[in-house]
Amino acid sequence: MNVAIIGCGLIGEKRARSLGNHKLLIVSDKNMERAKTVSQINSQNALIAENWEKAADHPGVDIVIVSTSNDYLTPIGLYALSHDKHVLIEKPGARNSVELEPFYKKSLDSGKKVKVGFNLRYHPAILKAKSIADSQGIGELMFIRGRYGHGGRVGYDKEWRAKPEISGGGELIDQGIHLIDLSRFFLGDFEKVDGITATYFWNMDADDNAFIYLKNSRSRVSWLQVSCTEWKNMFCLEVYGKYGKLQIDGLGGSYGVEKLSFYKMLPEMGPPETTVWEYPGEDFSWELEFRDFVESIEKNKPLNGSLNDAYQALKIVDKIYGRI
Asked: Which end of the chain has less neighbouring CB within 10 Å, N or C?
């Protein structure tokens, strides 16, 4: 398939490197140097469009990937969908659920696939944990506990993520949307939502910490914290069942080696039987996600990380921010 990438920053570059045998046909970015760099990845020599519309409606393009700041995700995605393209937009999909809703509704009867880039679903430890949980390897699920954070960088409070008019919020909508999505991935929809946000350190109008409580119709709970005052980058997701626990630590790179620990309760209880899988090396989640998206198009399979997933996650974000 022929692909357009709109937004050629760090994530756009990751997407370009994850296309496999598919062709990067055209790119667009406000920064022409970044556009040029991405256009030459894998020696593809893609076309460069000075404005994003020319990339989004290019007649030779099958898939449009939107990896811009949050304020442009839905407008560009909706434009591409209106021009009969399959679309992959990065998380969170929009600045809020109200903004996303028209795009979501149009996608339902468009005949095209629209996916949201929840790439954490494709990390090997999370895929393995989901497989074990789905096969009742730890029994009926009881609750989830999750923490995700980074320490920012000099000038972080001046970046677009720190400006709610562009990002839609702060740490809650940035890393928090991933933990909310993973909670839904394991436990389904939630009917009770509560939480608080705070700005403890960074001099910005957005939150740098969020504390989240979610409960589903069967009283299964997810307790989550996300932070950009986490001075050592970290990721930890614990999934508890009646007969065991799955714990995912690390995401590679500065987050540490990714691993899954499976603690299986013994009949006599006491110290559990423990199995640990480690996944060092390169992060292939971006490649796996794109490959799965293409397969969903070619075989008309349900999407893993749909606009509905983004819409439901954003409604949770909006409730915590007090917007709905």
From this structure: C
**Per residue of the chain (324 residues), what is the pLDDT tens digit?**
999 999 999 999 999 999 999 999 999 999 999 999 999 998 889 999 999 999 999 999 999 999 999 999 999 999 999 999 999 999 999 999 999 999 999 999 999 999 999 999 999 999 999 999 999 999 999 999 999 999 999 999 999 999 999 999 999 999 999 999 999 999 999 999 999 999 999 999 999 999 999 999 999 999 999 999 999 999 999 999 999 999 999 999 999 999 999 999 999 999 999 999 999 998 999 999 999 999 999 999 999 999 999 999 999 999 999 999
Query: Which CATH code is given to the segment(s) 124-282?
Result: 3.30.360.10
CA atoms in the 13 A half-sphere facing the CB of 11:
16
pTM above the 0.90 mark? yes
Q: Which is nearest to 312 in space by CA: 78, 91, 86?
A: 91
Fold of 2-117: Rossmann fold (3.40.50)
Task: Tell me how far apart the alpha carbons of residues 274 and 265 are, in angstroms, rounded to a whole number.
Answer: 9
